[in-house]
Amino acid sequence: MSRVLVVGAGLTGGACASLLRGAALGRVEVWDKARGAGGRMSTSRGTRDAACTADLGAQYITFEADRSEPRRSFYEELLSHGILQQLTAPIEGMVVKKGSCNYVAPQGISSVVKYYLKQSGADVFYEQHVTHISLRDGKWEVSRKTGPPELFDIVILTMPVPQILSLQGDIVNIINESQKQQLESVSYSSRYALGLFYEAGTRIDVPWAAQYLTNNPCIRFISIDNKKRNIESPEIGPSVVVHTTVTFGSEYLDSDPTEVQQLILSYLERIVPSLPKPSSIKCQKWRYSQVTKAVPNSLGQMILHTQPLLVCGGDGFTHSNFDGCIDSAMSLAEVVKSHL
Ligand SMILES: Cc1cc2nc3c(=O)[nH]c(=O)nc-3n(C[C@H](O)[C@H](O)[C@H](O)COP(=O)(O)OP(=O)(O)OC[C@H]3O[C@@H](n4cnc5c(N)ncnc54)[C@H](O)[C@@H]3O)c2cc1C
Protein backbone atom coordinates (compact mmCIF):
# COMPACT_ATOMS: atom_id res chain seq x y z
CA MET A 1 0.00 0.00 0.00
CA SER A 2 1.36 3.39 -1.01
CA ARG A 3 1.25 6.58 0.98
CA VAL A 4 0.25 9.36 -1.40
CA LEU A 5 0.59 13.13 -1.01
CA VAL A 6 -1.36 15.63 -3.11
CA VAL A 7 0.12 19.13 -2.71
CA GLY A 8 -2.61 21.73 -3.24
CA ALA A 9 -6.25 21.78 -2.09
CA GLY A 10 -7.47 23.65 -5.17
CA LEU A 11 -9.78 22.22 -7.84
CA THR A 12 -7.08 20.08 -9.50
CA GLY A 13 -5.85 18.63 -6.18
CA GLY A 14 -9.37 18.10 -4.82
CA ALA A 15 -10.71 16.47 -7.99
CA CYS A 16 -7.56 14.32 -8.33
CA ALA A 17 -7.88 13.09 -4.73
CA SER A 18 -11.54 12.19 -5.34
CA LEU A 19 -10.66 10.31 -8.55
CA LEU A 20 -8.12 8.28 -6.59
CA ARG A 21 -10.77 7.06 -4.19
CA GLY A 22 -11.17 3.34 -4.56
CA ALA A 23 -7.74 2.87 -6.16
CA ALA A 24 -5.59 0.34 -4.34
CA LEU A 25 -3.70 2.99 -2.45
CA GLY A 26 -2.91 3.36 1.22
CA ARG A 27 -3.47 6.68 2.88
CA VAL A 28 -3.99 9.74 0.67
CA GLU A 29 -3.14 13.10 2.21
CA VAL A 30 -3.73 16.58 0.81
CA TRP A 31 -1.50 19.42 2.05
CA ASP A 32 -2.11 23.09 1.34
CA LYS A 33 -0.23 26.14 2.54
CA ALA A 34 -3.47 28.13 2.88
CA ARG A 35 -5.84 28.08 5.83
CA GLY A 36 -8.68 26.55 3.84
CA ALA A 37 -9.70 24.78 0.65
CA GLY A 38 -10.27 26.27 -2.79
CA GLY A 39 -7.01 27.75 -4.07
CA ARG A 40 -8.02 30.16 -6.83
CA MET A 41 -11.61 28.93 -6.40
CA SER A 42 -11.62 30.72 -3.08
CA THR A 43 -14.51 32.03 -1.02
CA SER A 44 -13.64 34.59 1.66
CA ARG A 45 -15.57 35.55 4.77
CA GLY A 46 -16.11 39.01 6.23
CA THR A 47 -14.11 39.65 9.40
CA ARG A 48 -17.18 41.04 11.22
CA ASP A 49 -19.68 38.44 9.99
CA ALA A 50 -18.43 35.03 8.88
CA ALA A 51 -21.79 34.30 7.20
CA CYS A 52 -21.11 37.08 4.69
CA THR A 53 -19.01 35.52 1.92
CA ALA A 54 -17.55 36.49 -1.45
CA ASP A 55 -15.89 34.60 -4.30
CA LEU A 56 -12.60 36.40 -4.83
CA GLY A 57 -11.22 34.14 -7.57
CA ALA A 58 -13.29 32.14 -10.06
CA GLN A 59 -16.84 33.44 -10.52
CA TYR A 60 -18.64 30.93 -12.72
CA ILE A 61 -18.27 27.43 -14.02
CA THR A 62 -19.05 27.41 -17.70
CA PHE A 63 -20.27 24.39 -19.63
CA GLU A 64 -18.99 25.15 -23.10
CA ALA A 65 -21.21 23.82 -25.88
CA ASP A 66 -18.33 22.74 -28.10
CA ARG A 67 -15.86 21.51 -25.47
CA SER A 68 -17.38 20.39 -22.16
CA GLU A 69 -19.38 17.35 -23.33
CA PRO A 70 -16.76 14.75 -22.23
CA ARG A 71 -17.04 16.09 -18.66
CA ARG A 72 -20.85 16.31 -18.58
CA SER A 73 -21.05 13.78 -15.70
CA PHE A 74 -18.96 16.13 -13.49
CA TYR A 75 -21.44 18.97 -14.09
CA GLU A 76 -24.42 16.68 -13.52
CA GLU A 77 -23.01 15.41 -10.24
CA LEU A 78 -22.41 18.94 -8.88
CA LEU A 79 -25.87 20.08 -10.06
CA SER A 80 -27.60 17.07 -8.50
CA HIS A 81 -25.95 17.82 -5.13
CA GLY A 82 -26.97 21.50 -5.29
CA ILE A 83 -23.30 22.58 -5.37
CA LEU A 84 -23.92 24.31 -8.71
CA GLN A 85 -26.98 26.19 -9.91
CA GLN A 86 -27.65 27.85 -13.19
CA LEU A 87 -26.69 31.52 -13.29
CA THR A 88 -29.94 33.44 -13.60
CA ALA A 89 -29.00 36.91 -12.29
CA PRO A 90 -28.45 39.71 -14.84
CA ILE A 91 -24.78 40.18 -15.80
CA GLU A 92 -24.09 43.24 -17.94
CA GLY A 93 -21.53 42.85 -20.68
CA MET A 94 -21.23 39.07 -20.36
CA VAL A 95 -20.72 37.20 -23.62
CA VAL A 96 -22.43 33.81 -23.60
CA LYS A 97 -21.66 31.54 -26.51
CA LYS A 98 -24.61 29.74 -28.13
CA GLY A 99 -25.27 26.45 -26.32
CA SER A 100 -22.97 27.34 -23.40
CA CYS A 101 -24.25 27.61 -19.85
CA ASN A 102 -22.89 29.39 -16.79
CA TYR A 103 -23.26 27.97 -13.31
CA VAL A 104 -22.71 29.58 -9.91
CA ALA A 105 -22.07 27.96 -6.54
CA PRO A 106 -24.68 29.31 -4.05
CA GLN A 107 -22.49 28.34 -1.08
CA GLY A 108 -19.43 29.97 -2.64
CA ILE A 109 -17.17 28.65 -5.37
CA SER A 110 -14.88 26.91 -2.83
CA SER A 111 -17.81 24.55 -2.09
CA VAL A 112 -16.99 22.84 -5.41
CA VAL A 113 -13.48 22.00 -4.18
CA LYS A 114 -14.75 21.10 -0.69
CA TYR A 115 -17.22 18.69 -2.30
CA TYR A 116 -14.39 16.82 -4.06
CA LEU A 117 -12.18 16.80 -0.97
CA LYS A 118 -15.01 15.28 1.05
CA GLN A 119 -15.72 12.69 -1.66
CA SER A 120 -12.05 11.74 -1.68
CA GLY A 121 -11.98 10.55 1.92
CA ALA A 122 -8.40 11.90 2.01
CA ASP A 123 -6.89 13.48 5.12
CA VAL A 124 -6.61 17.18 4.38
CA PHE A 125 -4.13 19.37 6.24
CA TYR A 126 -3.92 23.15 5.94
CA GLU A 127 -1.07 25.57 6.71
CA GLN A 128 1.37 22.97 5.33
CA HIS A 129 3.71 24.96 3.12
CA VAL A 130 5.87 22.49 1.18
CA THR A 131 9.41 23.78 0.69
CA HIS A 132 11.65 20.79 -0.26
CA ILE A 133 11.18 17.45 -2.03
CA SER A 134 14.08 15.00 -1.91
CA LEU A 135 14.73 11.28 -2.38
CA ARG A 136 15.31 9.21 0.75
CA ASP A 137 15.45 5.39 0.81
CA GLY A 138 13.32 5.04 -2.34
CA LYS A 139 10.64 7.41 -1.08
CA TRP A 140 9.95 11.14 -1.25
CA GLU A 141 10.94 13.15 1.76
CA VAL A 142 8.67 16.18 1.80
CA SER A 143 9.64 19.14 3.99
CA ARG A 144 7.37 21.99 4.97
CA LYS A 145 7.85 25.35 6.67
CA THR A 146 6.72 23.98 10.04
CA GLY A 147 6.74 20.39 11.27
CA PRO A 148 9.14 17.52 10.57
CA PRO A 149 9.63 16.15 7.02
CA GLU A 150 7.47 13.16 6.08
CA LEU A 151 7.97 10.24 3.69
CA PHE A 152 5.60 9.40 0.82
CA ASP A 153 5.61 6.78 -1.95
CA ILE A 154 3.87 9.03 -4.49
CA VAL A 155 3.77 12.85 -4.64
CA ILE A 156 1.37 14.84 -6.87
CA LEU A 157 2.01 18.60 -7.24
CA THR A 158 -0.94 20.77 -8.32
CA MET A 159 0.15 24.34 -7.61
CA PRO A 160 0.87 27.01 -10.25
CA VAL A 161 3.99 26.14 -12.25
CA PRO A 162 6.25 28.93 -10.85
CA GLN A 163 5.50 27.57 -7.35
CA ILE A 164 6.54 24.08 -8.51
CA LEU A 165 9.77 25.54 -9.88
CA SER A 166 10.48 27.30 -6.58
CA LEU A 167 10.62 24.03 -4.62
CA GLN A 168 14.05 23.11 -3.26
CA GLY A 169 15.81 19.78 -2.62
CA ASP A 170 16.54 16.95 -5.09
CA ILE A 171 13.55 18.03 -7.21
CA VAL A 172 15.72 20.85 -8.61
CA ASN A 173 18.00 18.32 -10.33
CA ILE A 174 15.28 15.77 -11.02
CA ILE A 175 13.46 18.16 -13.37
CA ASN A 176 15.41 17.63 -16.61
CA GLU A 177 16.50 20.47 -18.94
CA SER A 178 13.72 19.91 -21.48
CA GLN A 179 11.04 19.78 -18.75
CA LYS A 180 12.52 22.88 -17.12
CA GLN A 181 12.31 24.76 -20.42
CA GLN A 182 8.69 23.73 -20.90
CA LEU A 183 7.77 24.67 -17.33
CA GLU A 184 9.56 28.01 -17.58
CA SER A 185 7.58 28.85 -20.70
CA VAL A 186 4.29 28.84 -18.76
CA SER A 187 2.87 32.29 -18.05
CA TYR A 188 0.00 33.70 -16.01
CA SER A 189 -1.87 36.99 -15.89
CA SER A 190 -1.97 38.88 -12.58
CA ARG A 191 -4.82 40.85 -11.08
CA TYR A 192 -6.21 42.09 -7.80
CA ALA A 193 -9.57 41.20 -6.30
CA LEU A 194 -11.34 43.22 -3.66
CA GLY A 195 -14.05 41.76 -1.43
CA LEU A 196 -16.41 44.20 0.32
CA PHE A 197 -18.51 42.73 3.12
CA TYR A 198 -21.64 44.45 4.47
CA GLU A 199 -23.85 44.19 7.53
CA ALA A 200 -27.14 42.30 7.25
CA GLY A 201 -29.92 44.56 6.05
CA THR A 202 -27.65 46.79 3.90
CA ARG A 203 -29.26 47.61 0.56
CA ILE A 204 -27.21 47.87 -2.61
CA ASP A 205 -29.38 49.54 -5.21
CA VAL A 206 -28.08 48.58 -8.63
CA PRO A 207 -30.10 46.85 -11.35
CA TRP A 208 -27.40 44.28 -12.17
CA ALA A 209 -25.86 41.37 -10.28
CA ALA A 210 -22.54 41.90 -12.03
CA GLN A 211 -21.03 43.88 -14.85
CA TYR A 212 -17.96 43.77 -17.06
CA LEU A 213 -16.31 47.11 -17.81
CA THR A 214 -14.33 47.61 -20.97
CA ASN A 215 -12.99 51.16 -20.70
CA ASN A 216 -11.87 51.52 -17.10
CA PRO A 217 -8.09 51.65 -16.48
CA CYS A 218 -8.44 49.82 -13.14
CA ILE A 219 -11.62 47.77 -12.90
CA ARG A 220 -12.68 44.95 -15.23
CA PHE A 221 -15.51 43.33 -13.26
CA ILE A 222 -17.85 44.19 -10.38
CA SER A 223 -20.38 41.84 -8.84
CA ILE A 224 -22.91 41.94 -6.06
CA ASP A 225 -21.60 38.53 -5.16
CA ASN A 226 -24.53 37.18 -3.13
CA LYS A 227 -26.97 38.30 -5.85
CA LYS A 228 -24.82 36.63 -8.51
CA ARG A 229 -24.98 33.41 -6.45
CA ASN A 230 -28.79 33.58 -6.10
CA ILE A 231 -28.49 34.26 -2.35
CA GLU A 232 -30.51 37.19 -1.06
CA SER A 233 -31.35 36.83 2.63
CA PRO A 234 -32.34 39.44 5.25
CA GLU A 235 -30.09 37.69 7.81
CA ILE A 236 -26.88 37.75 5.76
CA GLY A 237 -25.21 40.94 4.59
CA PRO A 238 -24.51 41.43 0.88
CA SER A 239 -20.99 41.34 -0.54
CA VAL A 240 -19.31 43.00 -3.50
CA VAL A 241 -16.40 41.64 -5.54
CA VAL A 242 -14.17 43.76 -7.76
CA HIS A 243 -11.60 42.36 -10.19
CA THR A 244 -9.01 44.68 -11.64
CA THR A 245 -7.81 44.61 -15.21
CA VAL A 246 -4.74 42.52 -15.96
CA THR A 247 -2.82 45.67 -16.95
CA PHE A 248 -3.55 47.25 -13.55
CA GLY A 249 -2.66 43.95 -11.83
CA SER A 250 0.76 43.79 -13.52
CA GLU A 251 1.51 47.48 -12.98
CA TYR A 252 0.79 47.37 -9.22
CA LEU A 253 1.92 43.78 -8.57
CA ASP A 254 4.60 44.73 -6.07
CA SER A 255 3.03 47.92 -4.71
CA ASP A 256 1.93 48.47 -1.13
CA PRO A 257 -1.36 46.51 -0.70
CA THR A 258 -3.00 49.29 1.36
CA GLU A 259 -2.32 51.82 -1.40
CA VAL A 260 -3.58 49.44 -4.06
CA GLN A 261 -6.77 48.85 -2.05
CA GLN A 262 -7.36 52.61 -1.74
CA LEU A 263 -6.77 53.10 -5.44
CA ILE A 264 -9.25 50.38 -6.43
CA LEU A 265 -11.81 51.80 -3.98
CA SER A 266 -11.45 55.28 -5.49
CA TYR A 267 -12.17 53.91 -8.98
CA LEU A 268 -15.08 51.88 -7.62
CA GLU A 269 -16.64 54.94 -6.01
CA ARG A 270 -16.63 56.75 -9.33
CA ILE A 271 -18.35 53.82 -11.05
CA VAL A 272 -20.91 53.05 -8.30
CA PRO A 273 -21.21 56.25 -6.18
CA SER A 274 -24.24 54.87 -4.31
CA LEU A 275 -22.27 51.98 -2.80
CA PRO A 276 -22.57 52.05 1.04
CA LYS A 277 -19.54 51.77 3.36
CA PRO A 278 -18.61 48.10 3.93
CA SER A 279 -18.04 46.65 7.42
CA SER A 280 -14.85 44.92 6.23
CA ILE A 281 -12.69 44.69 3.10
CA LYS A 282 -10.28 42.06 1.81
CA CYS A 283 -7.71 42.82 -0.89
CA GLN A 284 -6.41 39.70 -2.63
CA LYS A 285 -3.46 39.73 -4.97
CA TRP A 286 -3.58 36.99 -7.62
CA ARG A 287 0.02 36.86 -8.80
CA TYR A 288 -0.85 33.72 -10.76
CA SER A 289 -4.39 34.45 -11.84
CA GLN A 290 -5.13 32.74 -15.16
CA VAL A 291 -2.82 30.84 -17.49
CA THR A 292 -1.94 32.84 -20.59
CA LYS A 293 0.45 30.19 -21.94
CA ALA A 294 0.23 26.56 -20.80
CA VAL A 295 2.89 23.82 -21.02
CA PRO A 296 3.10 23.14 -24.76
CA ASN A 297 1.48 19.90 -26.01
CA SER A 298 0.76 18.81 -22.48
CA LEU A 299 -1.30 15.75 -21.59
CA GLY A 300 -2.57 17.52 -18.45
CA GLN A 301 0.39 16.45 -16.33
CA MET A 302 4.15 15.97 -16.44
CA ILE A 303 5.94 13.00 -14.89
CA LEU A 304 9.08 14.30 -13.19
CA HIS A 305 10.25 10.94 -11.77
CA THR A 306 8.87 7.41 -12.08
CA GLN A 307 10.27 5.26 -9.25
CA PRO A 308 9.11 6.63 -6.83
CA LEU A 309 6.47 8.60 -8.72
CA LEU A 310 6.58 12.40 -8.73
CA VAL A 311 4.09 14.04 -11.07
CA CYS A 312 2.77 17.57 -11.49
CA GLY A 313 -0.43 19.00 -12.96
CA GLY A 314 -2.91 21.86 -12.61
CA ASP A 315 -4.28 24.47 -14.97
CA GLY A 316 -0.75 25.32 -16.14
CA PHE A 317 -0.90 22.02 -18.05
CA THR A 318 -4.31 22.67 -19.62
CA HIS A 319 -6.22 25.95 -19.26
CA SER A 320 -7.69 28.08 -16.49
CA ASN A 321 -11.22 26.85 -16.01
CA PHE A 322 -13.21 23.96 -14.55
CA ASP A 323 -12.71 21.74 -17.61
CA GLY A 324 -8.98 22.41 -17.64
CA CYS A 325 -8.58 21.42 -13.98
CA ILE A 326 -10.79 18.33 -14.35
CA ASP A 327 -8.79 17.20 -17.40
CA SER A 328 -5.57 17.61 -15.48
CA ALA A 329 -7.00 15.80 -12.43
CA MET A 330 -8.16 12.87 -14.60
CA SER A 331 -4.79 12.68 -16.29
CA LEU A 332 -2.95 12.77 -12.94
CA ALA A 333 -5.18 10.05 -11.47
CA GLU A 334 -4.59 7.85 -14.55
CA VAL A 335 -0.82 8.17 -14.16
CA VAL A 336 -1.00 7.23 -10.48
CA LYS A 337 -3.30 4.26 -11.09
CA SER A 338 -1.11 2.94 -13.91
CA HIS A 339 1.89 3.01 -11.56
CA LEU A 340 0.26 0.75 -8.95
C1 LIG B 1 -9.51 36.28 -10.49
C2 LIG B 1 -9.77 34.92 -11.09
C3 LIG B 1 -10.94 34.69 -11.81
C4 LIG B 1 -11.18 33.44 -12.38
N1 LIG B 1 -12.37 33.21 -13.00
C5 LIG B 1 -12.70 31.95 -13.38
C6 LIG B 1 -14.02 31.63 -13.77
O1 LIG B 1 -14.93 32.47 -13.75
N2 LIG B 1 -14.27 30.35 -14.15
C7 LIG B 1 -13.31 29.36 -14.09
O2 LIG B 1 -13.61 28.21 -14.42
N3 LIG B 1 -12.06 29.64 -13.70
C8 LIG B 1 -11.74 30.90 -13.32
N4 LIG B 1 -10.48 31.17 -12.84
C9 LIG B 1 -9.43 30.12 -12.94
C10 LIG B 1 -9.59 29.04 -11.87
O3 LIG B 1 -9.80 29.65 -10.63
C11 LIG B 1 -8.30 28.21 -11.85
O4 LIG B 1 -8.06 27.68 -13.14
C12 LIG B 1 -8.39 27.03 -10.89
O5 LIG B 1 -8.92 27.42 -9.66
C13 LIG B 1 -6.99 26.45 -10.71
O6 LIG B 1 -7.06 25.36 -9.82
P1 LIG B 1 -5.75 24.53 -9.46
O7 LIG B 1 -6.15 23.53 -8.43
O8 LIG B 1 -5.08 24.04 -10.68
O9 LIG B 1 -4.74 25.61 -8.81
P2 LIG B 1 -4.95 26.47 -7.49
O10 LIG B 1 -6.37 26.80 -7.30
O11 LIG B 1 -3.98 27.60 -7.57
O12 LIG B 1 -4.54 25.48 -6.32
C14 LIG B 1 -3.20 25.28 -5.94
C15 LIG B 1 -3.13 25.18 -4.42
O13 LIG B 1 -1.77 24.89 -4.07
C16 LIG B 1 -1.47 25.57 -2.88
N5 LIG B 1 0.00 25.72 -2.83
C17 LIG B 1 0.79 26.46 -3.62
N6 LIG B 1 2.08 26.30 -3.28
C18 LIG B 1 2.09 25.44 -2.24
C19 LIG B 1 3.13 24.89 -1.43
N7 LIG B 1 4.43 25.17 -1.64
N8 LIG B 1 2.78 24.05 -0.42
C20 LIG B 1 1.47 23.74 -0.19
N9 LIG B 1 0.46 24.23 -0.93
C21 LIG B 1 0.76 25.05 -1.94
C22 LIG B 1 -2.21 26.90 -2.99
O14 LIG B 1 -2.45 27.46 -1.72
C23 LIG B 1 -3.49 26.48 -3.71
O15 LIG B 1 -4.55 26.22 -2.81
C24 LIG B 1 -10.22 32.40 -12.25
C25 LIG B 1 -9.06 32.63 -11.51
C26 LIG B 1 -8.84 33.87 -10.92
C27 LIG B 1 -7.62 34.07 -10.06
TrEMBL record:
PROSITE patterns: PROKAR_LIPOPROTEIN. GO terms for molecular function: oxidoreductase activity, acting on NAD(P)H. InterPro entries: Amino_oxidase, FAD/NAD-bd_sf, RNLS. GO terms for cellular component: extracellular region. It comes from the Eukaryota. SUPFAM superfamilies: FAD/NAD(P)-binding domain (SSF51905). Residues 96-336 form the Amine oxidase domain. It holds the Pfam family NAD_binding_8. Transmembrane segments: none annotated. This is Amine oxidase domain-containing protein. The lineage of its organism: Eukaryota, Metazoa, Chordata, Craniata, Vertebrata.
